[in-house]
Amino acid sequence: MAGFKHLVIVKFKEDVVVEDILNGMQKLVSEIDAVKSFEWGQDIEGEEMLGQGFTHAFLMTFEDKQGYTAFVGHPCHVEFSATFSTAIDKIVLLDFPSVVVKAAT
Amino acid sequence: MAGFKHLVIVKFKEDVVVEDILNGMQKLVSEIDAVKSFEWGQDIEGEEMLGQGFTHAFLMTFEDKQGYTAFVGHPCHVEFSATFSTAIDKIVLLDFPSVVVKAAT
């Protein structure tokens, strides 16, 4: 699915229980209709030089930028973000309209 | 689509013609069957603090880790990587089996 993407890559603090964060995220995306799809993963290649310590990627898809804006301003997101920000050591956010070059069949 | 993901986020060097890179990437994914889907985007939010200078995200999907391994070892990828690596100022790679929490409908 193309649409507008919200990509978050993080390195969590050492004492963080990632499962708790994931549970919160699952609840979040189930509560907010504007989130059309959500997938995540934990790096398994462990190329430390090229991962720069980042371990997890989270990718949400919205129909368009308006959907993303609605998500960002949603009270559940605001609340979740406050918790999330205390759990992370490093973060990079990228938000972009997705260009699909080769589509899954 | 779930599968195995290869996520690349980069900041290009200033004198790089991104369109040339993209053309090369499009050619690459069209040549390698193991790449099941490919999408990319350029950050438009420009939250410099949280983007850390990264501007582009590239996301490829493979059926499984074997597909990814085939891609990495493919001569076209090896050739492309050599060019790509001269164009980048910063890069983060994450490779992971994707967990789909909410699927696009």
UniProtKB/TrEMBL annotation, chains A, B:
Residues 4-96 form the Stress-response A/B barrel domain. InterPro entries: Dabb, Dimeric_a/b-barrel, HS1/DABB1-like. It comes from the Eukaryota. Homodimer. PANTHER family: EXPRESSED PROTEIN, PTHR33178. This is Stress-response A/B barrel domain-containing protein.
